[in-house]
Amino acid sequence: MTCAISAIVLAAGAAKRMARPKQLLPLDNSTVLERAVDSILDSRIDEVIVVVGYLANEMADLLANKPVKIVENPNYHRGMSTSIVSGLSLVSESSKAVMIALADQPYIDSLIVNKLIEAHATSNKGITLPVYKYRLGHHVIFDIKYKDELRALKGDVGGRQIINKHLEDVLEVAVNNDSILVDIDTTNMYCRLKNR
In three state form, how does the secondary structure of 99-111 look? Predict the structure, then answer.
C-alpha cells in the first residue's frame, strides 16, 4: 500500500535565541537548512514544501537548485501555526497525508523518514510519529483528514494539541537514535551538534 505524502519543512522563524539565523549556519559542508531538506528529499516523500519567512530571500536562494516548493510566510512572527497554514496552501490535491518537519533538526535522516512513511502507509492510524526511549519526537505525519484542524491552529504551536486530542488515532514508531528529539535552539546546542 502506498500513500502520497507531502512534507512541510518549517524554516520561517527568526531564531531569536541565537545571534544569527540557525537555518543558515554551516554544517557538514552544507547548512542546517540544506541538510534537513536533503534528508527528506533522499527519502520516499512525494513532495517537499519549505516555508520561509525571516530572511526569506536568503533561504530561498539556498534551495534554488533543489526540487522543492517554496512558500513565504509573511506572518511568521505570529508563531509556528502560521507556517503550517502557509505550507498547507501548496500541498498537492493528490496528497493523502502531510509530514510536518522542523528545519532545525538536521540529523533526522532519510532512513527514519522512510520508516515513518512505511508505518503510516501500512497502518490504519491517522497520525504517525517517532518515539525514542518513550519520548515523542519529529517528524509527524498527519492524514489529510486533519488538514482543517491543522489550518485552525493559532499562535506558536505545532500539531501537539491535535495529537493529544486524537490519541486513539496515533501510531508510535520506535527509532534507534535521539535525532528525533534534538533541535538547534541555542549556540551551545549548535556547537555540540557540529562536533558530535
Answer: EEEECCCCCCCHH
